[in-house]
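Q: I'm a student working through a structural biology exercise. My instructor gave each of us a protein and asked us to get a predicted structure, then write a short paragraph describing it. Mine is D-aminoacylase. I'm not confident about reading structure output yet, so if you can add a plain explanation after the tokens, that would really help. Here is the sequence I was given:
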Amino acid sequence: MTELLTGALIADGTGTPLRPADVLIDDHRITAVEPPGTLPEHHPRRDLTGLVLAPGFIDVHSHADNAPLLTDHDTTKILQGVTTEVVGNCGFSLAPRTTTHADVHDAFLQRLFPPLNTTWTGFAELFHATDIAGHVTNHCPLIGHGTLRVAATGMTDAAPDADALHRMRAMLEEGMTAGAFGLSSGLIYPPALFATTDELTALAEVLGGNGLYATHMRDEGDHLLDAIDEALRIGHVAGRTHLSHLKATHPRNWGRMPDALDRILQAREAGHVVHQDVYPYTASSTTLTSVLPTDYLGGDSEHTLAKLTAPTAHAELTAAIGETTHFDRILIATTPSHRHEGRTLADIAESRSTDPITALIDLLVTEELRVAMIHFSMHEDDLEIALRDTRTMIGSDGLPPGNGGRPHPRMTGTFPRVLGRYVRERGVLELPEAIRRMTSLPAETFRIPDRGLIAPGKVADLVAFDADTVVDVGDYQDAMRPPAGIPWVCLAGKTVVEDGGFLGSRAGTRLTPEA
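A: Happy to help. First, here is the predicted structure for D-aminoacylase. I'll explain a few features afterward.
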């Protein structure tokens, strides 16, 4: 199909000023970008007057690995103008899965994902299943260290022996051969939190000095700089380091973002290839079990539940986390029963005439650990400082679709929020630079082929938005409302969003990295 796009101002992804231009699409690629009125007019036309035309946005930190396997279409990203998602983050990927630890694998993934009908073992089989099911957006999969570790050793705090580490390396190699984009880790989640730097470095070696290591670091608060240093050591062996959702958490660490960025800059000046992403909110979202001490997490779900139901649990947790945890800043997002969603732990405790530790234990036990939370733990100043850094990209970090509940509004609002709040309202970024951070910079960093720019020869993944009205609409009580001001999106030259509504076509694909 050939289509001529006219009337728009072009944000081409390079960061250069907006300019009027006509764009010609032939089949699935851009074939010409020329001054208005200079291209032949016999082609079918789409009038985008009053809109900005940009490359489709790239969400560098997504957890929508399971989206192709859902019966319903996951439209949370495509309606934001996101056409490509990097999945498999924080050490969670859907493969590999071994017979020996199959049940543990399923329980491990169900702490984050809705129940899956798992039919695969390795990545080639997983990719075959998702490719057949179809993609609403393009997917760029990473290999999760946590899933590798579960496949080799189960849910244990013990270090993998030489044979287990060999199996982990072999499974990582299989995934890379099948088309994965790199290795991810989530070092606050069991069993990955028990991994040593040496274990992670041994896996990074498989990437041959030319691969990508993306990490949810071991610490984002008191030991933030030490965690950055560890990530850089591992990533330098892999080839490139990506720091996921960079932040400084807890009030006592607010104001430390300049120190973190200085440490990253020093690494760049020393020859490290390192980038980072943020999401444009001061609340995070993760599993509620992440507030527990590590000795509660050193085994499978039964181990954790046994610790929580022991007579000593209340006293132990009070001593370990009672003084440092702000229960009024922990909002329950999603539970299997959907009880208490949209309420803080402090509010739940008050309504029961009990204390927050008791409420925490009861919630985790009755919901069998499958509780997602929203944690108000960051400061706006740190976020804006991180946004200004020229190497910062944008990632939604939205929870997997299909869980229901009241998820974090970043699931539906991340990219329009950058454009509305941090470009138009607060002036933290100029519009062309914001578009670069969402398009060409992630395409270059993750080696995503033929995306990220409006230029002849590139795949026609495009979004048109109204710079004066684009805005996120969802909030912490009703996150699933789609954004406003994004009327048109196309994938590989095929219109998939018209007048702000999804047309029902899974036109995306699983991508493989550039050599």
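A: Here are two points you could use in your paragraph. The mean pLDDT is 97. The chain has 15 helices and 23 strands. It's a good idea to check both against the output above yourself.
Q: Great, thank you!
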